[in-house]
Specification:
The chain is an alpha+beta fold. It has 6 helices and 9 strands, in the order E-H-E-E-H-H-E-E-E-H-H-H-E-E-E.
């Protein structure tokens, strides 16, 4: 079936500096300036936006939005941008390049990928009034010891049974731009304690007294033993952990997050 692309709203590009409307970037810049560590590299963040509505030949609409924060400031910024693009969230044809000047085009490449997918695939609508969308966004904050916390993800419903949500959390060394993984931050011998703290925190949120109750009442961690997820943030006051939708529980449970205060982590961190 032939499909015709109509652009109902033009793609909007905006590069917003740290003093613009990007509140997450404002917070990052202010935190960097207030840092006690004078040796921390100064990295500014800007945001690029793509926002468009597409209609196929069958008259089905889809809203495509990509809001992407990216780093500015030399080699450290380049390392951060490269990690963002290669975090596994974006299509392969959209990765590569790391300069600040490249990032608006990368956001457009992501939008183009999903526009093309929408136009070329048959759309299975659950109802005539279903709203289709692809919405990618990111957030930048400063965590403990001036570590840069970067969260990027998308919510998407382009036909089928239900929406899809994906996210990646990254921690960046502010001096080098290197990604800090949980094994870089947590002592190996403390892994078991961290897992116990995560389970206790999640159980408290669901008003359960034990892991067994979580498994029996909510099917959380019911198929395999609890573990430390890849998504973690070294935030200012907590060590935060996030499990994707359907990663450790049924879809209906949704995203699961655990926040452990640093006072409970004595002896656990490197």
């Amino acid at each position: 079936m032939k499909r015709i692309l109509y652009i109902l709203t033009l793609a909007v590009f905006a590069i917003v500096g740290c003093n613009g409307s990007n509140k997450a970037s404002d917070a990052t810049s202010n935190a960097a300036q207030q840092s006690d560590n004078q040796n921390v590299a100064q990295v500014d963040f800007a945001e690029t936006k793509v926002d468009t509505t597409v209609v196929n030949a069958d008259g089905v609409k889809c809203q495509i939005s990509v809001y992407l924060n990216y780093a500015k400031g030399g080699a450290v910024a380049d390392a951060i941008n490269a990690a963002i693009l290669n975090c596994g969230l974006f299509p392969k044809e959209c990765v590569g390049g790391s300069k600040a000047k490249d990032m608006p085009k990368k956001a457009q490449d992501v939008a183009n990928h999903y526009i093309k997918a929408f136009l070329e695939n048959d759309i299975d609508l659950p109802s005539d009034d279903a709203e289709l969308f692809f919405d990618a966004s990111s957030k930048v904050t400063f965590g403990r010891d001036s570590i840069i916390n970067y969260q990027v993800g998308y919510d998407s419903f382009m036909g089928g049974v239900r929406p899809i949500s994906k996210s990646v959390w990254l921690n960046f060394d502010p001096k080098t731009g290197a990604v800090i993984k949980w094994k870089d931050f947590i002592r190996p011998e403390a892994e078991g304690k961290i897992i116990d703290l995560i389970v206790a925190n999640v159980a408290d949120q669901y008003e359960c007294a034990s892991l067994q109750e979580l498994q029996d009442n909510h099917l959380i961690f019911s198929e395999f033993d609890p573990y430390i997820p890849d998504n973690f943030l070294i935030s200012r006051y907590f060590l935060e952990f996030g499990y994707e939708c359907e990663e450790v529980a049924p879809y209906a449970v949704g995203y699961i997050k655990a926040s452990i205060p640093y006072k409970d982590l004595e002896g656990c961190l490197k």
